[in-house]
Records
---
Amino acid sequence: MSDQHDPNESGDSGDEARFQPRDGVTETIAVLQTRLPDHHGLLLCLDFDGTLAPIVDDPEAAEITPTNAELVDRLRDAPGIELAVVSGRGLADVRGRVDVDDVTYAGNYGIETDYGDGDIEVHPDAAAAESVVERVRTRLEDELEDEDGVAVEDKRWTTTVHFRRAPDRAEAVTDRVEAVVAEHGDDQLTTASGRAIVEIKPDVETNKGAVVSGFAAEADGYLPMYVGDDVGDRSAFEAIDAAGGVSVYVGDEDIGATATVASPDEVAALLRWIADDGVDYVGGNGAVDETH
Ligand SMILES: [Mg+2]
């Protein structure tokens, strides 16, 4: 039997008979096809760097791919889809880079949240530690001034030290950051390592997992889903697991997620399927014949 699919559905992939998702994408689609009909909607939580935007050497230069930007915009208006962008970046920073309104944004690993109305809520304990974070940041700027390729980023409620451009200095810089935090952090701060970064943040119970759990609790009857690429996303994967949701890891190893996709382009393939077809599988949207 010849392939009768409409070539116009192929999107980016030229005149192949039809868009052919690779394995992780196919796997995720199969899970969503099975599970969405039992839910009122999909709570789709997306990381930014490495997920919607390719990783680049200079974090200031990171940009959402045009396709992902278009798809986030489409999904924002899709029935039965709740969209949240969850990032370690400062909230205003990540919101500016996605640049789609009426979407929930969580920044600084959940210290800051905008539920889509433009107002920013700040975790009270983090707000209380602002001056300590500032003091440590100033100190780090001084101490790391001579380190080529190392940058100290002011995210107001937190600080990130980047060393993607100085990979051989990773351990030494991390040690120095930890020493400064121990000496000047007044026992109010903690550090966490990510991909070529060290985060300095108030020692409060916020991480991406807590953010995703909170969103999932509010979106009753929705299937929670998280897509992310970093060690900072692991708490989110665990939270999604606990909530019975779907986790998609962007990378090249098995970290126990529901499925693994290779790149922000494959994330786009997944988002495109959700926007084109997945919405019809959501229980109550009703366009998929129940005999399927
Ligand atoms: Mg990321």
---
Amino acid sequence: MQIHETAFITSMYRSYHEDISKDLYAKLWNNPKTNSLIPSILKNVSKDEAILHSLRNRFFYERVKSFFDKNDGGTFINFGSGFSMYQFQINKNVTTIEIDKKDIINYKKEKIDKWITQGKLPFRKILYTSIDFNILTEREIIKILLPLLQNKPTFILIEGVLFFLNRDTTNKLFRIFRRIQSPGDLVGSVSYLPEIETTEVYQRLLRYFNANNDVGDSFNHQTIPTSYYQNTEGYLLKEHIDEFQLSQIYTSNSAITSKSSILNENMYLLEMT
Ligand SMILES: C[S@@+](CC[C@H](N)C(=O)[O-])C[C@H]1O[C@@H](n2cnc3c(N)ncnc32)[C@H](O)[C@@H]1O
């Protein structure tokens, strides 16, 4: 499996539960290859993955939408944006900056431009930048991003990405966030807690990645304690919730009854002080 395939999978999960994810556009990315990979993940890793990713999307959809309802004309910056589609369901005056590896960015731009022309998507102002977070330095990334920003309120999202990065790169990204944001701006982030490492379901996930990992596309499997977010310089931790808690809010008669049997990701909302 290559990292870009995880972006297709996440998107397809969201399309399976539109009522929960609220992502009406995710299905545009569905394709036979991804469709054929998913049954084996649900069987060999965890049957709840599609619903959990939809819950994660719902959480950020609500937070991003509410931020831009109050900050019309602001900028949404999506680090490791994959095929996420929030920009089409928030205020049309918001500018979105999509950041990901080159292949994803080129493919996404081409498809989105075509779907906007065909009327399948509403017009939005979207800037695309390809950056590999592991390769470019802090200075280089800031130099690319600063000219794209216009002193408007920003919401930075880093969703489904930190698992694949190491701590040095993570620290670098949070230093970049601090350099490009202003007080009152938000960062939304997702990660696993270190406690998950001893669970059977997490071990199954690692086994799945190891067994299906293509040579040449190596990645980490980072977990992050909540204290990391509590101590992020320049930010206040405003909200912390996990997918288990989200399942109790957004799913009726939830089949999810235990935190330790699912790949329970944690969502954090930080405000720059
Ligand atoms: C699981 S996908 C999540 C995509 C999207 N944020 C979402 O939630 O739908 C992980 C994304 O992180 C991106 N990514 C991983 N490592 C990266 C790196 N070193 N530099 C830039 N992007 C990276 C991948 O290309 C991929 O699009």
